[in-house]
């Protein structure tokens, strides 16, 4: 029986998809928990979120090992090869998103004793968009949905604009009240972490497009409307 029709091989491909989705679900939860730590000033939840990063890292290693085993033992071609190489790249982005969620939780601990955010600093709105981008990029992977993936790529400009607006607002606050510099700098870090989460979600969406279409849209000046 040819390797590409081997039941064991198909089972391993299924495991690869399942592990990726498990890792993606954990990372989504990490983002949500990190923002809850921030808005609810929950130090205990922050500790749980930070500790959970070890589980994400373990899955990263397991997915890499399984992907390399599939490449070495089965020499996949065409679509299967794109799936496996996509998995290797997606796990890197998911692991980094997990790291960024951990950093947000760490800043949340530091900000727990500080005054609440001012109304002009809408970090929760930015967090909602970043989380949505991660969720939609993973949905695009499951459904092999190019249109959904393109939508995630288009959202990258929106989150960049939110980060720029937040940056300007926070600089204004620091200029008016030097006593706010410590907490404001931490909020600037959080804004940058969220912007980077959006970048990684975009990377995942771009890899989904490559997996489905066999075409790379990375480094293009504008996102294509259709492929």
List strands and helices in order, with pairings:
Elements lengths: L6 H34 L2 H32 L3 H34 L11 H21 L2 H31 L4 H33 L14
Helix pairs in contact: 1-2, 1-3, 1-4, 2-3, 3-6, 4-5, 4-6, 5-6
- What is the CATH fold-level name? Methane Monooxygenase Hydroxylase, Chain G, domain 1
- Major sheet summary line: none
Alpha plus pi helix count: 6
Rg, rounded, reads 19 Å
**What structural category do the secondary elements indicate?**
mainly alpha
CATH homologous superfamily, by name?
Phosphate transport system protein phou homolog 2, domain 2
- Topology as a string of helices (H) and strands (E): HHHHHH
Q: How many structural domains are formed by the residues?
A: 1
**What does the overall shape look like?**
globular
CATH architecture: Up-down Bundle
Instruction: Indicate the low-confidence ranges by residue numbers.
Output: none
| Average pLDDT score | 89
Instruction: Report the count of strand segments.
Output: 0
What are its keywords?
single chain, 227 residues, mainly alpha, Methane Monooxygenase Hydroxylase, Chain G, domain 1, 6 helices, globular
Describe the structure.
By secondary structure, the protein is mostly helical. It has one domain (3-213): Up-down Bundle (Methane Monooxygenase Hydroxylase, Chain G, domain 1). Helices cover 81% and strands 0% of the residues. It has 6 helices and no strands. It has helices spanning 7-40, 43-74, 78-111, 123-143, 146-176, 181-213. Helix 1 (7-40) packs antiparallel against helix 4 (123-143), helix 3 (78-111) packs antiparallel against helix 6 and helix 5 (146-176) runs antiparallel to helix 6. The chain is globular, with a radius of gyration of 19 Å. The protein starts with 6 loop residues before the first helix and ends in a 14-residue tail after the last helix. The model has no long low-confidence stretch (mean pLDDT 89).
């Amino acid at each position: 029986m040819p390797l590409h029709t081997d039941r064991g091989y198909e089972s391993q491909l299924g495991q690869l998809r399942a592990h990726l989705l498990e890792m993606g679900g954990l990372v989504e939860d990490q983002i949500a928990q990190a923002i809850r730590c921030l808005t609810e000033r929950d130090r205990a939840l922050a500790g749980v979120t930070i500790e959970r990063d070890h589980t994400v890292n373990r899955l990263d290693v397991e997915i890499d090992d399984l992907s390399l085993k599939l490449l070495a033992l089965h020499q996949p071609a065409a679509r299967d090869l794109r799936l496996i190489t996509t998995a290797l790249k997606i796990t890197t982005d998911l692991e980094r998103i997990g790291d960024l969620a951990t950093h947000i939780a760490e800043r949340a601990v530091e900000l727990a004793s500080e005054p609440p955010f001012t109304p002009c600093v809408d970090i929760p709105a930015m967090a909602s968009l970043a989380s949505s981008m991660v969720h939609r990029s993973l949905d695009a992977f499951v459904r092999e949905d190019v249109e959904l993936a393109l939508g995630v790529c288009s959202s990258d400009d929106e989150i960049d604009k939110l980060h720029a607006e937040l940056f300007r607002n926070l600089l204004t606050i620091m200029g008016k009240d030097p006593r706010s510099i410590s907490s404001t700098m931490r909020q600037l870090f959080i804004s940058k972490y969220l912007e980077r989460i959006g970048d990684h979600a975009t990377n995942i969406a771009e890899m989904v497009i490559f997996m489905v279409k066999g075409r790379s849209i990375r480094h293009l000046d504008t996102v294509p409307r259709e492929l």
